[in-house]
Write a structure and sequence with these properties.
CATH topology of the largest domain: Spore Coat Polysaccharide Biosynthesis Protein SpsA, Chain A
CATH architecture of the largest domain: Alpha-Beta Complex
Order of helices and strands: EHHEHEHEEHEEEEEHEHEHEEHHHH
Strand order of the largest sheet: 3-2-1-4-10-6-13
Largest sheet: 7 strands, mixed
Length: 345
């Protein structure tokens, strides 16, 4: 079984996150395509140099000098894939064991296999509440166990995926309900997963479910997903993390304004809709309280390791279990740098 994982790097992340590639090479015989999306020439050169060091690595620069939306990148990579599986993972994932063998038993049984929820995400935050009016990316299943997948780590059966894309026109993009073909709307309604909006890749997975395909989320013992590092780097540069236009106001402020505007619009629609919007607002802020401190900590940790400075303290985010995960992964990153850091100097 040959697996070739696409790993997409965005501007401001390459110097540090390329360290994690050594963990993937250490623990698997898979191949990895390192993809530059809006990276600087210097960062692209770093990726090229790293790829020259191993036959398991391949470099690809996307045909754009600007940051492309992640959904567009995934669609482009899927269209050029020639092997049995279409695989990808986020650039801030490290391995601590043989994750490919861990996934292998599921590949013949399921049309897609997913893993690597960010370490700051609680168990509750992985289950989509029925009342929520949209389907954000971090939810990997419904309350009754339907797998929604993710774009953190995915292995798709290429034939099944291509047939669905060709027959429906649906890709990895983000969709509002009224943008979905009527035939697919009917299928989605039948399985009870109609939402106002679907995040990157989510609609694709919902339609796979609606057409009777089996999807599987595996809670890997060997994959550590930091989460949020690329988004933080983009925001620091005044870019929209989703790869569209520059933001004119800080991203959270824009989101807050949209929520209040939506709440005002739907007030006449009944208490249930108001409660749904309030649930969405609470869910967003709960994640934000974990995601951004964790991303900031790891950015500071990478900088300290690479520049030989004292390591930063683990952030206090009000959840001892999540703090413990962050501390443990911090130690694993430091150990990885101790083993391979010299190769990046």
């Amino acid at each position: 079984m040959e697996l070739n994982f696409n790993i997409v790097y965005t501007v401001g992340t390459v110097r540090y996150l390329r360290l994690l590639v050594f963990s993937l090479l250490k623990w698997s015989e898979a191949s990895f395509r390192l993809v530059a999306n809006g990276c600087s020439p210097q960062e692209a050169h770093m990726l090229e140099e790293l790829c020259r060091s191993s036959s398991q690595l391949e470099f690809l620069a996307l045909p754009s000098t600007t940051l492309l939306p992640h959904s567009d990148v995934l669609s482009h990579l899927q269209s050029m894939e020639q092997s049995q599986y279409f695989c990808f993972m986020d650039s801030d994932i490290l391995a601590t064991g043989d994750f490919v063998s861990e996934m292998a038993p599921y590949l013949g049984q399921y049309s897609a296999v997913f893993s690597a929820t960010p370490i700051w995400c609680t168990e509750e935050e992985q289950v989509l509440p029925d009342i929520l009016p949209r389907m954000p990316g971090h939810f990997n299943r419904t309350s009754d166990g339907v797998c929604l997948g993710s774009t953190y780590f995915a292995i798709y059966d290429k034939r099944v995926l291509s047939e669905l894309i060709e027959s429906t026109g649906i890709g990895f993009g983000r969709y509002a309900w009224d943008e979905i073909p009527a035939s697919c709307q009917a299928q989605i309604n039948q399985i009870g997963l109609r939402k106002l909006h679907y995040d990157t890749g989510k609609l694709l997975n919902v339609v796979l479910n609606a057409q009777g395909k089996q999807l599987k989320y595996v809670d890997s013992a060997f994959l550590r997903h930091i989460g949020g590092v690329s988004a933080r780097a983009a925001l620091e540069r005044g870019l929209n993390p989703r790869g569209r236009s520059r933001t004119r106001a800080p991203w959270p402020v824009v989101r807050i304004k949209r929520w209040f505007a939506r709440a005002a619009r739907i007030e006449a629609g009944g208490r249930e809709k108001i409660e749904a919007t309030e649930a969405e607002r609470r869910e967003y802020f709960a994640r934000r309280r974990r995601r951004w401190p964790a991303a900031r900590y790891f950015s500071e940790l990478f900088a300290a390791l690479f520049d030989d400075r004292p390591l930063p303290p683990v952030p206090k985010i009000g959840d001892r279990q999540i703090e413990g995960r962050i501390e443990a992964v911090g130690r694993e990153v430091a150990a990885l740098y101790g083993e391979f850091g010299e190769r990046l100097r």
